[in-house]
Amino acid sequence: MAPDTEIFFEHASLTKPLAWSTGLHIGFAVFVVLAAWILPRHAGSNWGAGGGGEAIGVALVSNIPLPATQAPTANVLANESKGLSKSQPQQQEKEPDAIPIPDKQTKNSKKPVVSASKQAKPEPEPESNEVPYGQGGPVSGPYGSFNVAGAKGGFGFTGGGGDFGIRFGWYVQVVQRKVSENWLKYEVDPRIQTANRVYVVFDITRAGQPTNVEVEQSSGVPSLDQSAVRAIQRIDTFGPLPPDYSGNKVSVEFWFDYKR
Amino acid sequence: MEYRNTIYMSDLMSKKPVVAGAILRSIFLTAVCWFAASAAVVPCSAQDWIRTGTGLGVDKVRIAVPDFKQSTTDAKNAELLKTFDDTLFSDLDNAGIFDLVSKSFYPLEVPGSPTEVRFDAWVNPPVNASMLVFGDFGVTGSSLTVHGWLFDVKNSASPQVLGKQYTDQPTSDAARTIAHRFANEIIFRLGGGIAGIAESKIYFVSDRTGHKEIWVMDYDGANQHAVTHLGTISLSPRISPDGSRLAFSSLTKTSWEIKMFSVDLNRLVSFPSFGGTNLSPSWTPDGTKLAFSSSRAGDPNIYTVDAAGSGLHRLTTGKGPDVSPTWNRKTGAQLAFVSGRTGLPQIYTMEADGTNLQRVTDQGYAVSPNWSPNGQFLALAWFRKYGPGAPGANDIYLMDIASKQWVQLTHDGGRNDFPSWSPDGRHIVFQSSRSGSEQIWSMLADGTKLQQLTFGGRNSQPNWSWK
């Protein structure tokens, strides 16, 4: 610098501080750049909780008690079908079939089939009350209920004083196994994901053949109802009824839970 | 396994947790019933109801089969009892519907009669059984008496499901027959009315005498012996539905003919010769007609004929060889067969009058269709990626007729061919070269439980009897 333009007295040469300044500035800039490169890259990805762009990811909180998005089953109150608590109202008319005293011997033999059944039945009926929400579980108790891979179910051997289920549990298991094996789920409309439970009733004759197959309570999906009925019709026999059993037939109420 | 679609198989064979203790005593209801009944002065024998459903864990029955107890002290007891126990255990094991508890878990004292059964020993861990088979076995003089029971051990109030008594000669064949019969009874009861296969037979081709003759054996490979002694080449044996006649194709001095062998008379019976090359006979399920392939008109085509040999009727027309017919075993109204009309052999189905021809396989080299007893499936031997350098080999496949979905059953190599269904629809017997030479193997219809049945010579083309 020219000596006569020196205004300030200090002779301070700016070279050294300038060099320091430049160096530090450059160093700082390098540091910033390096920090941006070396430090964890995904530091920014925590912002907005992932997703990038405009999407904002959210974490599912499983302990918020939202109602489950499952098809409610067996809404007894709100549909037109006969309902779960299947009494046989049509048999009620036989009530006035009083026992005339002189004919006691002969009439008694026919009566057990008809009147005793609904005399005993009204007792269990009050228990077939409510279906816990979202489960459509077994309605009468006592019953055995359990959870298998999320599908709740159970079976109860109630009904008209019949003790078939207690004495011949192995036969009930045969029925259950065979119907489940013969149910071809691909017959159901492929657009259906889940559906209400469909209840099908049928009789098993002495020889073990299923007869009188009917849909007792529809699931609302016709293809599912049809596949359930066909599952039972496909079966030739369950095996003869146990020889110890004195009745001529057994009635079965079978439900089908469909989940794709 | 690569399942194209889980059809009936996954329901049949899924391993879901055991449904334990599903029977609860409705003592309350029974008591109520009795009270109500006594009020009405009528006994309470009523319309019985069962309520059950899907999704409850379709499981195999857990069954315990201890050795039977000796009821007499005869010298022959020990050896016959061992044959009986082994046969009974393997019959129930092979049935495909039971989960047999291993013998090492059984309690030390073995029950010999219903009064000796201790339910808690069998229901609780480590045995954890739902069913118990037990009984006694004894030789007295020149007769062998066996008592057998099947108990539902979870139901100690009324456990008996079966109680049987058998009497026979004290030979090991008789011990085996009694074991087969008792096993069949158990399988019939617990398997839902489908008879067991323990007394069924398998007919096959064997060259261990130097010529390819038709042989027969029990379903578990025991008791193998020759049926024909023709000294020429005999192939594709097919037993009739009632088990009285065996149809097969045989090379005579002039050509390949369909021959009929009477099992009752133990000799060949007359059957007309049709000219050309006649192969692969197949019986209708009512035993009245045979379908076979004949080249009498030039190209091999499918013909039908009465069981006596009259009424020859042609079913297929068109170019390309049509061979290996098999009837729909449930209805007898449809046939599946192999046709080379598009080049490589493919499987086709048609109605019994030859109409409604439909192709079932889409690619590769497909042969040996065999229709299942319930009418739902075809078992076939398929080489899906056929061609030079293509991986894989001939494997047995199952195809659902209605939906055309297929499942591969064998994977482990060897050439697998000529599948044949068992009468209960749960087992398939086939020939395989996986052991180095062609032998007969059997398996469950989901591809598990492979068992080699023959060991000597070269054995092929098995055919399972109808009952």
Could you describe the 3D structure shown?
The complex is a heterodimer of chains A (260) and B (467). Chain A has helices at residues 15-38, 104-120, 164-167, 169-182, 222-233; strands at 144-148, 151-155, 198-204, 210-217, 250-256. With 260 residues, chain A is an alpha+beta fold. Chain A has a domain at 89-93 and 110-128 and 139-256: 2-Layer Sandwich (Fusion Protein Consisting Of Minor Coat Protein, Glycine Rich Linker, Tola, And A His Tag, Chain: A, Domain 2), CATH 3.30.1150. A three-stranded antiparallel β-sheet of chain A has the order 4-3-5, covered by helices on one side. In chain A, strands 1-2 form a two-stranded antiparallel ribbon. The longest helix of chain A is centred in the N-terminal third of the chain and has 24 residues, at 15-38. The radius of gyration of chain A is 38 Å and the shape is rod-shaped. The model of chain A is unreliable at 49-53, 106-128 and 130-161 (pLDDT under 50). Chain B contains five helices and 31 strands. In chain B, the strands form seven sheets. In chain B, strands 2, 3, 4, 5, 6 and 7 form a six-stranded mixed β-sheet that branches. In chain B, strands 10-9-8-31 form a four-stranded antiparallel β-sheet, with no helix packed on it. In chain B, a hairpin with a 6-residue loop joins strand 9 and strand 10. Chains A and B meet through helix 2, strand 1, strand 2, helix 3 and helix 4 of A and helix 1, helix 2, strand 1 and helix 5 of B.
Question: Helix and strand succession of chain A?
Answer: HHEEHHEEHE
> What level of helicity do the residues of chain A show?
25-40%
Low-confidence stretches of chain A: 49-53, 106-128, 130-161
**What is the spatial order of strands in the main beta sheet of chain A?**
4-3-5
Q: What's the number of structural domains of chain B?
A: 2
Report the count of strand segments of chain A.
Answer: 5
The assembly state of the depicted protein chains is heterodimer
Instruction: State the share of residues found in helices of chain B, binned by percent.
Output: 10-25%
Within the CATH hierarchy, at the fold level, what is the topology of the largest domain in chain B? Neuraminidase
Number of helices of chain B: 5
Structural class of chain B: mainly beta
Q: Provide the residue-averaged pLDDT of chain B.
A: 86
